[in-house]
Amino acid sequence: MDSGINTGPQRKRLIIVSNRLPFTIREEEGELQFIESTGGLVTGIGSYLDTLDNADAPVTEHLWIGWPGTTIPENQETAVRERALRDFRSIPVFLSTGDMENFYHGFCNKTIWPLFHSFSMYTAFEDSYWQNYRYVNERFCEAIADIARPDDIIWINDYHLMLLPRMVKTMTPNLPIGFFLHIPFPTYEIFRLLPGKWRQEILEGLLGADLVGFHTYDYMQYFLQCTMRILGYEHTLGQIQMPGMIVQVKTLPMGIEYKKFSTAANIPEIADEMGIIKKTFGDVKIILSVDRLDYTKGILNRLLGFERLLQNSPDLCGKVVLCMVVVPSRVDIEHYEQMKKQIEENVGRINGKFGTLNWRPIIYQYRYIPFNPLTALYLSGDIGLVTPLRDGMNLVAKEFVASKLNKLGVLILSEMAGAVKELGEAIIINPNNIEEIAAALKEAL
């Protein structure tokens, strides 16, 4: 089956595979709406795809395979498939509500996500989750088989699809396959908490790719250690000799589209928004916090660090404000609902404790913010406060720095974020130490 997109035989086509498509489908007033997806993966890949018009690009077109974000009624699947291909160059993988419950909310977000971020106390080990994880990976493999051509390049993304590289390599041994993990890879002592069959199949699945990429050297080394201790495969300078193939394991830190942020101040809408923010706050220093709702992001810690700053330096009351943006994420998962409640309780408590009629110490927004107003915040912020307890990379830190054309501003960055390996000029803190966060804020001011 061909994709329906006409490409000459001389052209290379990139097939991107990820759990989510660059759009999410929602039903509004009985109609299906295609809404732009958010998150670092979509943003990062989207930035790369924008460069494919360049004559020197190694590939000249692409298809994107993924889940459309909701269960689509069977009688609407054909229409959704046609529009996804026409408007988004995408191939949707349709899954039932039950499949997604056990796969996405189950194995991905209750097993792999907490474990790979070193939150073993939140990790669930349910066999039904694992079975669905395998089944969904098989469905993605079928979707690739339907459209793959001999000259395609396959790029598989993230922890949702770690069994997929081996499945695809078994089906089409001559297609080049890359896999990139957008989250941390854990140490052997944490990874081995997975049941023996699961951890073995995950490693074997990843080793079906010709190239396996990680954000940092540490994550790469943890992976190589696990393959040696669990599967017995040694490596030479990151190369693993497998039966019939060589797997290259590399550190490939994810970046951002620098020019997009460094020239944002030239966009009239952004400049106007920045002017409104500056006029509203005047001489008050703005500490900026932007993150998805997630227990790995250390949002509560930065709230407590800001509170400690005001306690230790009462002269700063009225002279500084914490502008906190929390983007909704995984709202159906218990730990996330609990954390949202804790954040809002602490915001209310701190504002009630320190606020006055003329000054509110924390401006809290629980919503997704599009590029223009978000970049206006980056440009207006005096301090970027990024305190994840564990993070694969963290693109917010890079975006904040890239926006600062006038070089005015300070980044406070957790040593637990992958980005710290590249942004060593930031004020580096341990996010578990509230006093350290407060002291870093004082130094940054």
Detailed description of the structure:
The protein has 445 residues and is α/β, with parallel strands linked by helices. It is built from 15 helices and 17 strands. Strand 4, helix 2 and strand 5 form a beta-alpha-beta unit. It is globular.
> Main β-sheet: number of strands, strand sense, barrel status?
9 strands, mixed
Beta-strand residue percentage: 15-25%
Low-confidence stretches: 1-9
Structural shape: globular
Labels describing this entry:
445 residues; alpha/beta; nine-stranded mixed sheet; six-stranded parallel sheet; globular; disordered N terminus
How is the secondary structure organized here?
Elements: E1 13-20, E2 23-28, E3 31-36, H1 40-49, E4 61-67, H2 77-88, E5 90-92, H3 97-116, H4 127-147, E6 152-157, H5 164-171, E7 177-180, H6 188-191, H7 196-206, E8 211-214, H8 217-231, E9 235-236, E10 239-242, E11 245-251, H9 258-262, H10 268-281, E12 285-292, H11 299-312, E13 320-327, H12 334-354, E14 362-366, H13 371-380, E15 383-386, H14 395-403, E16 410-414, E17 427-429, H15 434-444
Parallel strand pairs: 1-4, 1-6, 4-5, 6-7, 7-8, 8-11, 12-13, 12-15, 13-14, 15-16, 16-17
Antiparallel strand pairs: 2-3, 9-10, 10-11
Helix pairs in contact: 3-4, 4-5, 7-8, 10-13, 11-12, 11-15
